[in-house]
C-alpha cells in the first residue's frame, strides 16, 4: 500500500472483542471497556502510523434493539479518521458451541449498512478466536456466514489471539491487499458522498437518456425496414427475383446501411459530448471533495483547541474552497450553454424512422 498510514474502523456486536483486536495491532495502549461512544486509538505498527476507531457494540439479536445513540455513533465512526477509513473490520467471534444464527447475521448486515451499502467494498470479516479453538469450529462459523461474506466479495481473515505477532502481520497483509484492490481509495462517509452526488450536474444523466432514446428510435426503424425486406423476399417468387421483375419493390438496402452508420454516429457523438461535460465538471467536483475533506480535517485538528477551534477548521475548509468550486461550476455552465446555442443553430434531421 502506497499510503504511509492506515485508517481502520472496527465493527461488531457487544462483546465481539474489538478492543482486543485494537490492542493486538497497536500493542501497549490503554483500552476502554464496553462503551456507548466511539473510541479513537492511534499508534504505530511496523513503522506505519495506524489510526483505529473502535465503535460501540450493537445488539446481537436485532437492529431494532440497538439504541439510537449507538446507531448514530456507528454512522459517525467513519468521520473520525479523515478523509475516511481504508478498511472496516467486521469482528465475528468464534466460540465453541455458539455458531451465530442467520437472524443474527442478518442483523449484523443491517448494522454494517448503517454506513451505506457502499461500505462492503471496503469491508473485511475477521473471525476472532482463542488459540485453542479447533479448525472444525472455525470452518463451521465461516460456512454459516457464507451469505454475509458474499457481500464483501468473500474477504475474510482468521485471527487467533496469542502472543505471536504472526497473526497480526497476516491480518494487516490482508487489509493492505484489500486497499490495493480499491486502488488506495478510502471509504467516503455517506454524508459527504451524498453531498458530492447532489453536485453532479443533471445534464450528464439527461444527455445519456436523450441519446439512448434517439439510438433506440433508429434501431427500431432499422429493424422494421429490415423485417419488411426479409418478409418481402420470402413472399416474392424466386423466379421473379432472378429476372429482376419490376413487380417486386424492395426497401433500399443503402438506406438501411445509412441508418446503421447513423447509429454509430450517434454513439460517437454521445461519447464526445459526455466526455466534454466530464471535462467541464471534473475539476469543480474534485474541489468540492477537497473542500469537504479540508473541512473535516480542519475540524479534527481544531478540536485540540476546543469547540471554537473545530468550528474554525470547518469554516476555513468550506468558506474558502467551496465558493471557488461553485464559481468554476458557473463558468462550466456558461460554456455548456454556449455550446448548446451553437448546436441549436445547426439544422438537424429528426425523422429517424422514415
Structure, explained:
With 354 residues, the chain is α/β, with parallel strands linked by helices. It folds into two domains: 5-187, P-loop containing nucleotide triphosphate hydrolases (Rossmann fold, 3-Layer(aba) Sandwich); 200-344. Helix content is 57%, strand content 12%. The chain has helices spanning 18-26, 68-77, 102-112, 135-144, 146-151, 166-181, 190-199, 202-235, 238-243, 253-302, 306-344, and strands at residues 5-11, 39-45, 48-54, 87-93, 123-130, 156-161. It has a six-stranded mixed β-sheet with strand order 2-3-1-4-5-6, sandwiched between helices. α8 runs antiparallel to α10 (253-302) and α10 (253-302) runs antiparallel to α11 (306-344). The longest helix has 50 residues, at 253-302. It is elongated and about 85 Å long. The chain starts with a strand and ends in a 10-residue tail after the last helix. The chain crosses the membrane at residues 280-301, 307-329. Residues 3-196 form the AIG1-type G domain. Residues 233-254 are annotated as: Disordered. Keywords: GTP-binding, Membrane, Nucleotide-binding, Transmembrane, Transmembrane helix. This is AIG1-type G domain-containing protein.
